[in-house]
């Protein structure tokens, strides 16, 4: 019971009584003011829709973008708030921090994202207002996803205030990077392999690198899955089933993630099919690798819980393209292998050699597959042909219209690759900058020996008392 | 292990062997007969839809109401059966009762609701039949939601038979109240702040007031969250994560709840946006208040698990209106504060002074936010202008047609307020009446010392035996 | 702690280090090759959709089949991967195997199903390619559902390799059986009472019969719900809540299951309503029976967790038909009774007399309700009249077109009954054959005393060590 006793008489050095409420109130009030000044409904969510329908000869309400995107939006929403949060609950004593702060960060992030992305993408120049609809909500969720991925790298080592700061900067950087990649370079990235996963992962890894804690091993006894915890097998099992449950929700809803903002009609349809296939193929190779690299050929839950998702990340950019079903299977095939190897060999190397402490192993689940996704996207874009896409199809899929009417697939491939580089630069550069900001000693982050411990920021006193009583019970 | 031992040799005084099966069989048979006499498919779910399409010149099957509402319906369904049920599983030994009886009550309630609401809203006078479609299913779920909210106040203190009686009356009262508010007063209440939350909450609180148990403290050792339970911290954590999981499902799907029966097109679209924003804003103020009112600035899970939902309740009535994005943020802002304060200060006052034992604190999550929602609805309706809504938009949003063609926004505001009063009267009046019915000594409800205990109505004997064995193990 | 100790020093006789990875890699590679040769996008998921729309005068992208079926598809996906998997996690030490292998089997099965069903249903004879869209994804999930039902009968007694073999054959048999029933006999089976549930259940039961293990009682201490486990009541509760949660997800999403591939418009609409009602009615009779057959009238979670779903299975075939609301209630009414009685009386008989070891009791949840569903379908088809359906409606519902233009309802009823027989024959015949294949001593299946134990195939060593340490702790 030592573990339990020493969390009870552990020193508290992280009072956020004033800073956290202050930040929450001030930021929420600023959101209200900024929304009051800038944000309005767009023509599809405004009561003027009835007039708009008339003048645009839209035959039915069902053609409102809401009905094209709402089902995918709800699935994405589940992935952001439950999926990402619960995937981080594997630590022995940090489940509240994982889910609770994920919740707080996301709730703030989506508001700031609506503004930042709105200024870049949905600003109505006639009246200087941001006009929002369902697609903006999805993009806000996507933007926050980038920050939550980054959270995975610093999980348990930062204070909620630091997280909010990290999100403020993260969302801002994301919006700029996204604007450059999608609008300036005119690259396509429906599932966000580059914009979301590559950026988010390297943003988090760079922050973690700057915030390197040499003495983190002092709280190593808390950094580890429930499986090395001094609890009954049964509890470990239950916890692992919960984790697998959330992995499955991410796995099942990933087709919605990659198709949520794809083109209406065949675009969304194809994105869902490609993701469905890539993910299925990843599962088999992950299981194979996991069994192959364990002495006795047994399966390791950690691989099943993480690497099975890599295929969805890697097919993100190309999901909309005519990747073709077997193409998706191939992408998934290799991502399952690479991601699992990452957990076995690369993560330890990352920590010992590169001094990057990646709590959740986001490098294996988001960074590497994200980069692969960008490359796959560039290649499949460069390889696009009129025979496969059809003249009209090619124009629709890559939006070769207006200023980009002259662009051809090979050139598009180049711009896709450029987009990947932009995502990497923003991720690494932004991460180092924000990391330095977070190094300031004003954020109430935990000492090395208190990392990975809910006790610092959550009211869990009674538990200790009771657990100690239990100790007495079981001794008596 | 005392806690475990004494639930094993606790007296059983609550045999429902005959009453429960009898009630279930009789009521289900009556449902079959009444459905046989009254309920048929409506023109959109009947095979005659193909003819109907032709004569109404509907160009595509996709314009069937099913495709407008089914995705929201499924989300609402999840909220009713999982969300509401699991939000009540925080008691140490009453999780079966919470989820299991929630399931039973809802399954019966939706059938009775289809009939009651059908007679008032979907009766086809040509043949005297109730014609049902997807919207009726959603409304039935909504109706049941009112009764499940009420269940939250009496959780652990009533027998399943009492619950079924409570639901029978609750659904009946709901249907009448809903008819008066929506049809007679012609008030709008898409998200049901008044019709569902205000009514349901005061219905439950009044019942709980009538059924006041002075000696409830005898089972107080069972009334409390798993956190004061004599179990390992780890189990408490797992349990709390499960609770937070269900909170998140309610939080994520609330936009579907408020938009499910809103007007096609911009109505549903706007309702989803407003709810999304209100809920985001609530999270930040809830976190701020929770941290502010704890000695050391730590966060209390109980607040995060409940108050973060208040914004969704409070924006229910006005969700369809042109509340504007910042309006939604403001509503959410204040609800997070008020609801959290409710848990800190008002709940104790309610129990000690007003003798209302509110097991789940529905007063803070449904009653207060519901009333706020009604007021917000009245104000925003009264403030509606043609410039903001557009002539056509104003007419569509408030259905100023037929007998109500002459009505203007200011008048509408008055009727909205009147609707709120009706909901309060039906909730309190109906609750007191049903409470008196439930006081009859024929329902097999538990004695004061047996409240909050699954052992009374569920087969959990083995557990005790085994747990005692375990005690022996750990002693040996 | 004996239980925990002896799983640590239990003999390992089931090395799958080479067989499992080999099978996974080889099969996944074959999938890639076969997909490369055969599978392409169909006209609704291909970039040529824009041209297709033009030539077919489709007014809007919203009429792409994706928008008719995607929401139901996601719900079905959740049922297959979470619902079916978690419903099997009731064993003391086999939760990893239940969910993990369910995941593996499903991920492989859907790929093989896309090919097998594609050859039979979606082959484009102009270019010999299989053209897939959202409906194929749903059908692949359905096909896998059959195999997962079968898994329920042999849960804990087979190796992952055996499971994959079982799935390979199962999917193949399913595709042939489905082709005969739906295309040759032209029977209708929207919810798959016959095609999925009857076939899957008897396929699994026959395999289990062939693989009968006389000495299974040696691992009986592991075969049993967490409720007889030597763990705290609290953990048992948590585990049971998790189980009930997944039951509820199956229960809530069953309307999507039965309506997913029903006809556009009224077909899907009606299927959802019928399933919603049948399931509601099943809950009440299940509760009634459960209470009636317990000595003290208490409720048994096992019944609530399984029998409440029987109504959804039994209404599968007729869900599309004009079964009428009260008809659905009646079906659900009887299925609740029959299924609960099955768990109380029939399961023991099945094991002792017929030597069929049915781990999950699929006979009560899928076999019996499936057969009932087939019969209900046959009767309601035979009873169909032009007055009820309308001439056009009758033709649409039963596809009395082309070669079947002359068919009348009574005849259709006969063919429905024939379809049920085909499902039974394929299930039993195929099961016996595959069972004999799986009897070969090359599959690394566990010895009788090691059944129902994750330890054989999963890396759970630490737990044992730690749990033993804990033992020491609590002794000291």
Distance separating the two termini of chain A: 14 Å
The SSE string of chain A, one letter per element, is HHEHHHEEHHHHHHHHHHHHH
Helix content class of chain A: 55-70%
CATH topological fold name of chain A: Ammonium transporter fold
- The total domain count of chain A is 1
Which sheet architecture does the biggest sheet of chain A show? 3 strands, mixed
Uncertain runs of chain A are 1-12, 225-231, 461-476
Principal-axes geometry of chain A comes out as globular
So how many helices of chain A? 18
Overall pLDDT confidence of chain A: 86
Walk across the major sheet of chain A and give the strand order: 1-3-2
As a percent range, the share of strand residues of chain A is under 5%
Q: How would you name the CATH homologous superfamily of chain A? A: Ammonium transporter AmtB like domains
DSSP E strands of chain A, number = 3
Please report the first level of CATH classification, the CATH class of chain A: Mainly Alpha
Tell me the quaternary state. homotrimer
Rg of chain A from C-alpha positions? 23 Å
SSE topology:
3 copies of one chain form a homotrimer.
Chain A: H1 2-8, H2 19-38, E1 39-41, H3 49-56, H4 65-87, H5 95-121, E2 123-124, E3 129-132, H6 134-154, H7 160-184, H8 193-210, H9 233-259, H10 266-292, H11 301-306, H12 310-314, H13 325-352, H14 362-382, H15 386-389, H16 391-398, H17 409-439, H18 461-475
Parallel strand pairs in A: 1-3
Antiparallel strand pairs in A: 2-3
